[in-house]
Amino acid sequence: MARRIGAIAVLAARSAVRSHLVGILLILVPVVVFGLPLTIKGDGTLAGTARITLRYSLAAVAALLGAATLWASCLSIAGEIEGRQIQLVAVKPVRRFEIWLGKWVGLLAMNAALLAVAGVLTWLMALWTVNRSAVSEAERRDVREEILTARRPCLPRSDVTAEDVEREAQRLIAAGRLSTNMPRATLLAYAGRQAQVTRATVAPGQSKTWLFDLPQALAGVEADGNVFSVRFDLAMYAGDRRPVTGTFTVGEPHWPAFFSYSIRRHIKGSHRFSAPVPAEASGARQIEVTFANADRAVSHTAIFRIGRNLELRVREASFESNLLRALILLFGYLGLLAALGLTAGAFLSFPVAAFSVCCALLMAGLTRELGADSEPAHSCGHHGHATTGMMTEFGESLAGALKLVVDPALRFEALEPLSDGVAIPWTAVGQAVGLLLGIYPGVMGALGAWVFSRRELALPM
What we know:
The protein is an alpha+beta fold. About 55% of the residues lie in helices and about 15% in strands.
């Protein structure tokens, strides 16, 4: 069976080459990778240019390969049936599922080669952008440490306990801001948010400490070439633009700080600072970050954004490894598109199959964006209102079912973490390969082969 599938895969790849599809893509991919960063203007910084090179270039390449994959996969079976060429293969002792699988493997091989080319060119373009730009060496170093890397983000321990939420709820009830008649879940949710606001506020002259538990993979960080990177978000009340001055210190609990970083007149927004990992940090399992706000004479109240107070990032892998993980995720999505196109082409004509697949992708995108969170409408005594309620419930049920199918496939992020220097976990890559190249194509292949085996191939469409 493997020989038959391999032979069909080779025929599918040769067909793509003879149709000049591969040649055209080999010309367009370098044009996109090298041309897009030169035509799109960023924020004028080297970091902005590097993010454009990574995110938008690979996104354009993925869109280009996705469109070509859909076209080739829909045409692969449907075109051969319409041209009466499929009989040359179908009359041989080859199962219909082997035909489907062989063509899918051929499309995977084409995409793997093109993605490899795009990945190498993107890597070269990113290095050239950083090394050839007319900027200071410090800015180049920041880009290498923040973008051309793979960092594991660590969030601090929650400093709001159930007892804190209960005390805050009682305080708000006593102050008349909450009523005991409210549902308890709503009351505790509001009290919990208020407790978080209190914990995220640092008045002048006061300090706040965050405790980070490092994952096992990061417990043995080495000082050579590694840095701690801390990101924090300052929030302010509406119309409040008063700056904040203070000092961050980073270290292990109950030990002297590794280093400190002072901020001066910082206002609302996202900020970051980084410093080399000292040798004494090797083997650290916990990291403590403390912010000491300056006195009222030079500073104001610091309000850290809820849910995004602080984020500690420690280098986990190289940029090349992270790029490889992103390319594997993109390869998985291209494999899913190929399976979808082949299944549609197995029982529809080429134009109808292409149109149906595009509509299915549009519905999947809309379902993910809009979701199915609206409250179901309840019918009233009037028949028109009852009909409207039933139709609304049916639409919400359908959207919920689609979302249940679509969400597992669309939950993997590749380009945003890559362009932000965040490590893509190998566990996520493994899950993506299992879903996008295993479960989903397996179901589609079984369906496509079943319909294909019952389709009359001797008659024109």
